[in-house]
């Protein structure tokens, strides 16, 4: 389906003057970010760290891989990463 083996697909679209950047996991889960042209290195670092958090959730035997992630702790950590890496 994808031509690139790289999970970080960079800018895949534009919407209302903003960039849409994508990250696709080996399991085909997609993370999307809508932004105004931030540093590619910062976005790559953000997606990489969010993916690590995501993997920890998926490896939890009490979490079903097909259910939504509703963890407040996950949400809090993603927001902290965004603040630290994206600004």
From TrEMBL:
InterPro entries: Longin-like_dom_sf (IPR011012), Sedlin (IPR006722). One of its GO terms (biological process) is endoplasmic reticulum to Golgi vesicle-mediated transport. SUPFAM superfamilies: SNARE-like. It holds the Pfam family Sedlin_N. It comes from the Eukaryota. GO terms for cellular component: cytoplasm. PANTHER family: TRAFFICKING PROTEIN PARTICLE COMPLEX SUBUNIT 2. This is Trafficking protein particle complex subunit. It comes from Chlamydomonas incerta.
């Amino acid at each position: 389906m994808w031509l690139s083996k790289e999970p970080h697909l960079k800018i895949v679209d534009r919407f209302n003057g903003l960039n849409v950047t994508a990250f696709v996991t080996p399991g085909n889960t997609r993370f999307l970010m809508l932004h105004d042209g931030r540093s590619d290195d910062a976005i790559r670092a953000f997606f990489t760290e969010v993916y690590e958090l995501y993997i920890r959730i998926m490896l939890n035997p009490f979490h079903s891989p097909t259910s939504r992630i509703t963890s407040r702790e996950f949400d809090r950590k993603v927001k902290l990463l965004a603040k630290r890496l994206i600004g």
